[in-house]
Design a protein that fits this description.
414 residues, mainly alpha, Growth Hormone, Chain: A, 2 domains, MFS_trans_sf, Transporter, transmembrane helix, membrane, transmembrane
Length: 414
């Protein structure tokens, strides 16, 4: 919070991110609801979910482009205006609930999300230049807090607007366009202060193959974990991906479990909301305490802690403890993960040169985000087959994750 109040550039960048992310969150949930109003709703919701995953596959190439972009400030501001214009088009299209209109909205959604990823990559060197190395952990803890709060508030506002306007999807799209415009105006306030270091890429790099670029990105990624003073890069990365797979599976498992065993015999939707809120609350509290004991732990120690929590979490579910007990573990998982993400982001900015920040960050984001549907599909299928077997396999995966990170720590001490 002190950094937000004292650092003018960081403050306005954060305000801009809050407005941008709020707008995206407003529309993401409304986009799913819009799909459900079309003929053959189950299939259309499936398509909408798939559409929202497509930008993940462009993240690395978008990151490379962001690193090579010289006029970062100009493009960051321009993209906000373009996104606002795109959602004005969405507002016009959604007056007609047809497959053609839905297809056009899907395409615009993909383009807008790609632009958002591009804009995020453009901002990374600006943050690196204007925030001290010691302040990176606090900066990304606060940014994480803003991200979760804006996502939560955006979804609530989106559903409320839709209800209050009697399913007026065009109105919600216009509100989304306004948030993008406000996000741009927040950047215009500090336009002249948004400094960054830019090193022109040599011509040889421009002609390098995709394989060569990927090797370079892998090398850069190793530097991030090398900053931690550990060896076994592949083990650490595999462990983080495995934890991401397990973390993404928790809610889908409970979406099925809570149908038969709701918390305190509450309605299904209320029980799901309690579990979701416990995780979000854990992350938010963690983000507001960037200098607590856990923030001083190394990245590998935090990963070991999460793996251990997941082992105990799966055990209480194998033993069929009440679902309410799980909410405590879920909140603690959110709290510790709330330390891992800012630490990883701060190490990214502290370890790498500005000309490779966006592409390396995009590479990590792609790996972690692709693990989400994997965890969802695997454990949803297992839970439908047999709940206890699903938790047993969850337990074994958690044990593998802990073994990977502990053996990494042992090798690094030799």
């Amino acid at each position: 919070m002190n950094l937000f109040l004292k650092n003018r550039v960081f403050r306005w960048l954060t305000i801009s991110d809050f407005l941008n992310n709020s707008g995206a969150s407003i529309y993401n949930i409304v986009f799913i609801i819009f799909a459900a109003t079309l003929p053959n709703p189950k299939f259309m919701v499936f398509v909408a979910n798939a559409i929202m995953l497509i930008p993940i596959f462009f993240q690395i190439s978008v990151g490379i482009k962001a690193d090579k972009t010289e006029k970062k400030v100009k493009w960051t501001i321009s993209l906000g205006f373009i996104q606002a214009f795109l959602f004005i088009l969405v507002a016009l299209l959604q007056r007609n609930r047809s497959y053609l209109a839905f297809s056009a909205v899907c395409f615009i959604n993909i383009i807008s999300d790609i632009f958002s990823n591009f804009e995020r990559g453009l901002k990374m060197p600006i943050i690196q230049k204007n925030v001290s190395e010691d302040g990176m952990m606090s900066a990304f803890s606060f940014k994480q807090f803003i991200t979760y709060i804006s996502s939560l508030l955006g979804q609530i506002l989106g559903v409320w607007l839709l209800t209050a306007s009697y399913q007026n999807f065009s109105l919600v799209a216009i509100v989304n366009a306004i948030t993008f415009l406000l996000s741009v105006f927040a950047l215009i306030v500090i336009r002249k202060e948004m400094s960054f270091e830019f090193i022109s890429a040599v011509s040889k790099d421009n002609k390098s193959s995709l394989i060569s670029k990927m090797k370079a990105i892998l090398s850069n990624t190793k530097q991030i974990f090398g900053k931690e003073g550990t060896t076994g890069f592949a083990r650490i990365l595999s462990c983080i991906i495995l934890i991401n797979v397990l973390g993404s599976a928790i809610l889908p498992i409970f979406n099925i479990v809570l149908l038969d065993k709701p918390i305190f015999n509450l309605q299904f939707g209320t029980s799901v909301l309690i579990l979701q809120s416990s995780y979000i609350l854990g992350v938010i509290i963690s983000s507001l305490l960037p200098n607590d004991v856990f923030s001083k732990f190394s990245l590998t120690t935090l990963i070991s802690l999460v793996s251990t929590i997941l082992i105990f979490f799966s055990m209480i579910n194998i033993l069929q403890f009440p679902p309410l007990m799980s909410t405590i573990f879920i909140a603690f998982i959110g709290y510790v993960i709330g330390k891992i993400n800012p630490k990883l982001s701060s190490q990214l900015l502290n370890a790498l040169a500005p000309e490779v920040l966006a592409q390396t960050g995009a590479f990590l984001d792609t790996l972690f985000m692709l693990s989400i549907p994997v965890g969802t599909v695997i454990f949803t299928s297992l839970t439908l087959w047999h709940v206890k077997i699903s938790w047993c396999i969850f337990f074994m995966f958690s044990l593998v994750a802990l073994t990977l990170i502990l053996t990494t720590n042992q090798r690094s001490k030799k």
